[in-house]
Amino acid sequence: MADTAAVSSAPTVSSAPTVSSAPTASSAVGAIRVRDASAPVRRQLVRFAFYRIDLAWRRLARDARRAQLAEALGVLDRHAARLLLRTYTLVGTRGDADCMLWAASEDADRLHAMFRDLNRTGLGGYLVPAYSYTSMTKRSLYFDKTRPGNRGGSERLVLAPGAARFLFVYPFVKTRAWWALPSDERQRMMDEHIRVGRDFVGVKINTTYSFGLDDQEFVVAFEADSAAEFLDCVQALRDTEASAYTLRDVPSFTCMAVTPQDMLAALG
């Protein structure tokens, strides 16, 4: 399902504060010209960071746990003013991860600073990385014929998460046979993929790209209020021709959107 407008795509304006300062000399990303862009564009570096809590933390005295949670909350609140940050709990939906931070910024230094500061908290000593995916926004390789004029997916350069109850996340890799196909053949198969996905109006896709950045090609994150609608969407897309070219689309995570405070409180 990666790199497609098969379901409702993100709007053009992010809900995160606009980053107006120029990237520093040490920043890994900045104003980047890509092959399918007509002018320099700013793109976001994205991280999906999944953690599980070390069980030893739950055996600490309650006052010690509360103090560590308050310290970590202060870090998240402070950095949320400088980058796009969404918080999720997986307590009750996944056995090997308890929470997830979805963070994005045009400036890699801002991502680094938030995770560095979280590591330095008391709670950071008990947060065990379970999974981590790094990616970047990019204009889509395919265009949605149901949206006239949208041939480059320019709205995908800035993430704009909504207020959906769930976020479904998984890494995605296509087969080498897929990339060996002519571009018009891939577009033909994506046309079907997009058409099928459009039937599920309550599911919104956020596709980001990992070529050379991490171990997958894409990270896909689907926003939805109904887990049942998302399940039915994925099952329907299994019948499309493009699905036969999927090499890997696991592990899959069912994340519930919560405030930073509630995410931390669910740890125990």
Query: What structural class is derived from the secondary structure elements?
Result: alpha+beta
In CATH, the architecture is 2-Layer Sandwich
Number of domains: 1
Name of the top-level CATH class? Alpha Beta
Description:
- The chain has 268 residues and is of the alpha+beta class.
- The chain has a single domain, classed as Alpha-Beta Plaits (2-Layer Sandwich).
- 25% of the residues lie in helices and 26% in strands.
- It has six helices and twelve strands.
- The strands form two sheets. Strands 1, 4, 5, 6, 7, 8, 9, 10, 11 and 12 form a ten-stranded mixed beta sheet that branches. Strands 2-3 form a two-stranded antiparallel ribbon.
- A hairpin with an 8-residue loop joins β9 and β10.
- The longest helix has 19 residues.
Outline:
The chain has 268 residues and is an alpha+beta fold. The protein has helices spanning 62-80, 108-119, 176-180, 183-197, 227-237, 260-265, and strands at 8-9, 31-32, 41-42, 45-53, 84-89, 99-105, 127-136, 166-174, 203-209, 218-224, 246-248, 253-257. The protein has one domain (8-16, 28-265): 2-Layer Sandwich (Alpha-Beta Plaits).
Topology, please?
Blueprint: E1 8-9, E2 31-32, E3 41-42, E4 45-53, H1 62-80, E5 84-89, E6 99-105, H2 108-119, E7 127-136, E8 166-174, H3 176-180, H4 183-197, E9 203-209, E10 218-224, H5 227-237, E11 246-248, E12 253-257, H6 260-265
